[in-house]
Design a protein that fits this description.
It is built from 24 helices and 29 strands. The protein is of the alpha+beta class and about 725 residues long.
Length: about 725
């Protein structure tokens, strides 16, 4: 018989933890595009590969035929006709190759621009305008660490402010702020110390380290994108490897690396076998070095260990939610993809505690009619694509496990789309069975499409009672809730009473661990033991904390069922956990907001970020049309009124042309520009339409505030104020 009083049962294999906790804060992949996730695209690519192979076979046959014509002394006209037909076939082959390249590489934003070129344009603009830059740049930087510049800080601050408004305030959540340094015992209980790992390989000559799954993924993607002559069957094999990559064991990864002849990318040296590397940054708490700690890999554990006090603060009532925004850390083996995979990042996490017997939600009706792209596991398994579903229908059909989980899926959808994420490039993907932890009821990821593919940005998981039970077992502090009954209830209770005297005589110093293991037995296991003791007098019992099997005799434990009157029910709450990777969301927002438009002269492309006013780093710029003392004073007056109204703004009193100043602010994503061209009234220009209106000076702050805070739309403003037309508006 086997008993697991602590978290040992979940810590079986080094890959297990990626399944236990596949939310963003732990081991989620940066890109999750798989063949199953793109059924129609994959079918098109396969047909093109087959057509290309057929065309190449035909070309080879025609080439052989031409050689035979020449050797047999055929006429020049006959040979010329055959050569012309061969050249036509080669042109057809080139056309198929171009279609295949387009199918593989995709098209970023429908602009006809390749994904790589589009990404490079975005990143160049972001770094040049100081949204973010590599940290410690003058010392050649450190991979996976980035500094946010002034506009980047402002965007991040605005995103987090809206997150607090949308979730913490509107849902009446309890916000906490816990330390980044976490004692080892906490992360031992959660499983991070033993299992928070990635598989790593080393260059056998230089010692350089690489993530094993990244090398295999890069090899497969490179072959699929560049080896156009590859057969459809071989392409299908590589796509299958990409689809199951996260589930491969160390031995399987090592075997694939050897099979494909993958070597160190920098030196081409052979690689070691994969082995686990713990991703947490270890430190010592205090000068003695006796207390080990870690920089937290997620913020959630701080909420779990404070559950008892938060439950009391909430009046001992469920459900309630606690939230935390903070830095998390992981020592990535080979960080890449900019803000998508970094060593220090901002998480915003919610732990919504609920009665496991009642996962309804009082505000579910507010989101149940939402319709958006969902990707249930059945569609993934059958090779179909994501489809638009009604959230309420998904719950009623059992696709989404319960109302509370669905409610947060709906709220996450509203949050992301209001930030400016394109709803057509946002989907909610359900975890497959092999991704799910054994205790999890249901898990969904909010994935956003970018030039890197589909990026998991939010994990929404029903984690049942796993976390609170793990900390209860380790700390011996009951993290439980109570439900008081209106009238006492008679219930049949399992009673396990270890005999301390007999256990002490038999196991001496191990008595306590054996007793705890006995008390932790479930009903079936306990009743099986009772039956075995009554027939045989003794039974073999595995105590995981001792890592051995012991003999339990009949006089060592009493097991019975008793009818008791209870006035309340005590239980461990389940938790619904939405976990937000703020950096990933912000990067995807940058890509979804970026576009180019031609200058008035048509001789260059101008960069624009179409940020909604909600998240724009600066809401408004103010500048005089020309350098003029009176206009500059009016500009300063307007800037002061905007600041007093809480509207971020920036003055530009340089002598640069008005068109160039507009272009500079468009590139920062500033939605509105106030141009002072008189002392009594000014123009306000909207970034994307370039429409202008004329407004009295004393009305500017109110107009900008109303449209920035969503009280009215720009179209409403256009109806209220006279339009202004000027050549400079399009300059």
């Amino acid at each position: 018989m086997r008993s697991y009083p602590a978290t040992v049962s979940s810590l079986i294999h080094h890959r297990t933890f990626s399944v236990l906790r596949r939310t963003l804060s732990l081991r989620s992949p940066a890109t999750v595009t798989t063949p199953m996730a793109n059924g129609s695209t994959t079918a098109n690519e396969d047909s093109l590969r087959r057509a290309l192979a057929d065309k190449q076979s035909t070309i080879d046959a025609r080439g052989n035929a031409i050689r035979q014509l020449k050797s047999s002394g055929a006429s020049k006209s006959e040979i010329d006709e055959a050569v012309k037909a061969l050249n036509d076939l080669k042109l057809e082959k080139t056309s198929i190759e171009n279609q295949l390249k387009a199918s593989i590489s995709g098209d970023a934003g429908g602009s006809g621009t390749s994904r790589d070129a589009f990404r490079q344009a975005v990143v160049n603009t972001l770094e040049r305008r100081l949204f973010y830059i590599p940290s410690f740049k003058i010392y050649r930087g450190v991979a996976g660490l980035y500094d946010y510049g002034p506009p980047g800080c402002a965007v991040k601050s605005n995103v987090l402010a809206f997150w607090r408004q949308h979730f913490v305030l509107e849902e009446d959540m309890l916000e906490v702020d816990c330390p980044c340094v976490t004692p080892e015992v906490v992360l031992k209980a959660s499983g991070h110390v033993d299992k928070f790992t990635d598989l790593m390989v080393k260059d056998e000559k230089t010692g350089n380290c690489y993530r094993a799954d990244h090398l295999l993924k890069d090899y497969c993607k490179d072959k699929l994108e560049n080896d156009l002559a590859m057969s459809a069957d071989k392409a299908a094999e590589l796509k299958h490897v990409l689809a199951v990559l996260d589930d491969l064991s160390g031995e399987q990864l090592g075997a694939k690396i050897k099979e494909y002849g993958i070597v160190a990318p920098d030196t081409k040296n052979p690689l070691s076998d994969p082995y686990p590397f713990n991703l947490m940054f270890q430190t010592q708490i205090g000068p003695s070095g006796a207390s080990t700690g870690y920089m937290r890999p997620e913020t959630a554990q701080g909420i779990f260990v404070n559950f008892k006090d938060l439950y009391y603060y909430n009046g001992n009532k469920l459900p309630f939610a606690a939230a935390q925004i903070g830095q998390a850390f992981r020592n990535e083996i080979s960080p890449r993809q900019g803000l998508l995979r970094v060593r220090e990042f901002t998480l915003a996490e919610i732990e919504h505690f609920v009665d496991p017997d009642d996962k309804s939600h009082p505000k579910y009706s507010e989101v149940k009619d939402l319709k958006f792209l969902m990707f249930p596991r059945d569609e993934q398994m059958s090779g179909q694509s994501a489809k638009v579903l009604c959230l309420g229908e998904a719950v009623s059909k059992g696709i989404v496990n319960n109302q509370t989980l669905a409610y947060f899926i709906g709220r996450v959808y509203l949050f992301l789309t209001r930030l400016g994420i394109d709803e057509k490039r946002l989907r909610f993907r359900q975890h497959l069975p092999n991704e799910m932890a054994h205790y999890a009821a249901d898990c969904w990821d909010a994935e956003i499409e970018s030039s890197y593919g589909w990026i998991e940005c939010v994990g929404i998981a029903d984690r049942s009672a796993y976390d609170l039970r793990a900390h209860t077992d380790k700390s011996n502090v009951a993290l439980v809730a109570q439900e008081k009954f209106a009238a006492p209830k008679e219930v049949e209770k399992l009673v396990i009473t270890p005999s301390k005297k007999e256990l002490g005589l038999a196991f001496k110093g191990s008595q306590k661990m054996v007793a705890e293991a006995l008390e932790a037995m479930g009903e079936k296991e306990a009743m099986d033991m009772k039956a075995a003791l009554e027939t045989k007098g003794e039974v073999q019992f595995e105590v995981c904390t001792l890592e051995k099997t012991v003999t339990i005799k009949k006089n060592m434990v009493s097991i019975s069922k008793e009818i008791k009157k209870e006035h309340q029910r005590t239980f461990t709450p389940s938790v619904i956990e939405p976990s937000f990777g703020i950096g990933r969301i912000i990067y995807c927002l940058y890509e979804h907001s970026f576009y180019m438009r031609p200058s008035k002269a048509g001789d260059e492309q101008l960069n624009v970020f179409r940020f909604p006013p909600l998240v724009a780093p600066i809401k408004c710029t103010v500048f005089p049309l020309v350098q003029n003392q009176q206009y500059e004073e009016v500009a300063k007056q307007i800037s002061r009124s905007l600041t007093a109204a809480g509207i971020s703004n920036k003055k530009d009193i340089t002598g640069t042309s008005i068109g160039k100043r507009y272009a500079r602010t468009d590139e920062l994503g500033v939605p509105f520009a106030v141009t002072v061209d008189s002392t009594s009234s000014v123009t306000i220009r909207e970034r994307d339409s370039k429409d202008q209106i004329r407004v009295n000076v004393d009305e500017v702050a109110a107009v900008i505030k109303d449209v920035s805070e969503g009280r009215c739309k720009w179209n409403d403003i256009l109806q209220k104020y006279p339009a202004h037309t000027s050549a400079s508006a399009d300059e």
